[in-house]
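Problem 3 from the worked examples.
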Amino acid sequence: MGSKKKAKEEEERIQEEIRRVRLPKGNQTFGIVEQRLGGSRMKVICLDGKTRVCRIPGRLKRRLWVREGDILLVEPWEFTGDEKGDIIFKYRHSQIDFLKHKGYLKKLDELEEF
């Protein structure tokens, strides 16, 4: 394959990712991983101003690898929603750029300390 064809395919793949950016629905919110706690749990600073201990559900455990500083989609639990939640989705770099450009992550600049 020629390099032009590879570049074109890569550009199409990136556009496909951006087209399908998942946005928060209902009580879901954006969050940033502050610390990994072990046992598929981590401390997440959510953009609604609360710090939650979030877990990766079993259906995503093997597929979702999360590090400190990653931006996630978090769904708070119904009962202890201010303290705990589930990680629903991890955003890629191109998707984060798209969300910042569209203004969804404006509070991120205020919270970002690092």
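Problem 4, a separate protein:
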Amino acid sequence: MRPAASDSSAPTRRDLRARQQTAEAARRAERSRAERTRPARPGATRGTAVAARVPLTQRPRQRGGLGVVHRGLGRQVLSVAVLVAVFALVVSVSVPASVFGTPSANAATTGAPLVGSAADTQSFQVSAAAAADDTSRDAYGATSQAEFAAAAAAIQRAAAAKAAKATTAQYANTWNPGIGPVRWPYEVMPKLGPGFGAPATCSTCMSVHQGQDYLAHEGTPMYSIATGVVTKKQQDSYGWGNHLVITSTVNGQTVSFLYAHTQTGSIAVNVGDTVQVGQFIALTGSTGSVTAPHLHLELQLNGTKVNPHTWLQANVTG
């Protein structure tokens, strides 16, 4: 008995696969049309809306994440290469070639001696006066900070003395216009400072003040109180500084006048000189143990210290 003949209209496996693929393609096409015709979402950016209207077949292909990484890395490498090239160009222009090698190495490389032309050389001329200066260490005596300070102070004192001498020369022939055998030490009397018998004003002074301070300005000229002979002249004394003593005879009594703290180089008389009353003798200064310029005046009457200001008040006439 023969088997029944197969129905020629029954689909084969190949037909089924073809139909399935056709249906899948139709579904994909339908989804594509739906995406192209879908309205833009509220709040979507303009770029998003434009992208929605462009058919998928017309959109540019976007590479995957690996391509983006490669492109960013390439840009960084290119930037670094540009910076290195610029740095190399700056170095080659601003730094001489001899910096990168010793003279012997450069000569061996070029095969020529290191000799430049006369036009390429630089010259510097020094005057004979400048060349004569000795800059060796032995030319200077000061080697410590204290010695340098002392040297600077000495220079300052010398300059002050020079200026004082010039000022002293201006007052050499001037006189206190007072009258009488006893006159005040200043043409115009300044303010009074600590007086005779006052407590000591410094740690190195005596227990009590043994004179009268007249607070005159630096450089104010002072004059001889009475006619007498210069019996002492001393520079740079620690306590009194630059000072002098003039011994006179007033009313039959021996009177010695001490003028202290005078300006350096300003004393216009010397030991043994006879000084007339009212004659210019020195400039007010601040040498010795002082805090400000002034005249410290002491007076000895027959060898005994007395109040100089009180004595002047009693003996100055006119």
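Solution to problem 4. Helices lie at 13-37, 46-53, 65-94, 103-110, 128-131, 145-171, 308-315. The beta strands are 191-192, 212-215, 221-223, 228-237, 241-250, 253-262, 274-275, 280-283, 295-301, 304-306.
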